[in-house]
Amino acid sequence: MQAAQVLALALPGVVLANVRSAVLNQLVTNIRQNENHVTTGIVSTAQIYPVLSDNRYHDLALELISSISYPSYGYMFTNPYENATTIWELWNAPLTGPSMNSRNHIMYGSFGAWFYSYLAGIHLSSNILTIRPRMASETKKHLMSKLDCQLSTLHGLVHISYTRDEHDTISKPILLRVTIPPNVQARVVFEPFFHSA
Fold first, then answer.
1. What values do phi and psi take at 157, rounded to 5?
2. Maximum CA pair distance of the chain?
3. What pLDDT is attached to residue 97?
4. What integer is the mean pLDDT of 96-107?
5. What gap in Å lies between CA 128 and CA 189, rounded to an integer?
6. How many CA atoms lie within 13 A of 138 on its CB side?
7. pLDDT tens digits, residue range 27-67?
8. Which residues pair with residue 179 across a beta bridge?
9. How many helices, marked H, and strands, marked E, lie in the chain?
10. Are the beta carbons of 68 and 83 closer than 8 angstroms?
11. Which of 71, 135, 156, 176 could disulfide-pair with 162, CB 3.0 to 4.6 Å?
């Protein structure tokens, strides 16, 4: 069910504007009914994180990616049966037989693009570098209080890091560091993530 909704929302023109919010609400309801877990496969897993982040559910996307209970990426690495060193073909790989069950299945690694373009917010075009990091909301900042990302581009190294004060010793502080390659024009854009930002 999640796969059909995610792909319909991700592909342009598939969902009519007047029903888009209903399809999105159904997706979010299904995720919550599954105790904040995905039921997607290889093709739709690549799109679920951008779809949620682009539609006011970035915190939910962070909850999904940081989950350690079954089924999740975190479960692959922290389960009591077999700790993964790479990404598995199946969410429940240790519980199934060896046939069609790869322990090195990079197709599920598609979320990596979301890390660069949404979490770090690196967007390259021919004439400008836009940095638009997507941070967790103020009430969910424990999901991701810091980030450190480097990306080698044709123009040179882009480095973005930020830290948020988890203990509220200073009211809503964020320390952002950005390094861009020489001779590259860049802009930094923030979305408001707490009231009155």
1. -80, 130
2. 54
3. 66
4. 73
5. 13
6. 12
7. 999 999 999 999 998 889 989 999 999 999 999 999 999 99
8. 159
9. 6, 6
10. no
11. 176
Give me 188's structure tokens.
């930094």
- Say if residues 189 and 196 touch (Cβ distance below 8 Å): no
Q: What's the token pair of residue 42?
A: 């290889």
Residue 172 pLDDT grade (very low, low, confident, very high; cuts 50, 70, 90): low
The burial of 31, by beta-carbon neighbours within 10 Å (0-12 exposed, 13-18 middle, 19 or more buried), is given as: buried
Of 137 and 178, which is predicted with more confidence? 178
Residue 143's nearest CA partner among 161, 119, 178 is: 119
Q: Are 164 and 145 in contact (CB under 8 A)?
A: yes
Q: Highest mean pLDDT: which of 40-54, 106-120, 183-197?
A: 40-54
3-state DSSP assignment of residue 177 = strand
Q: How far apart are CA 121 and CA 189, in angstroms?
A: 9
Query: Checking DSSP bridges between strand 186-188 and strand 129-131, what pairing results, if any?
Result: parallel
Query: Which residues, in sequence order, are bridge partners of residue 124?
Result: 129
**DSSP-assigned letters across all residues of 89-117:** SSTTGGGS-STT--S--GGGGGGHHHIII
Positive/negative CA dihedral, 42, 43, 44, 49: positive
Two structure tokens written together for 60? 């939910």
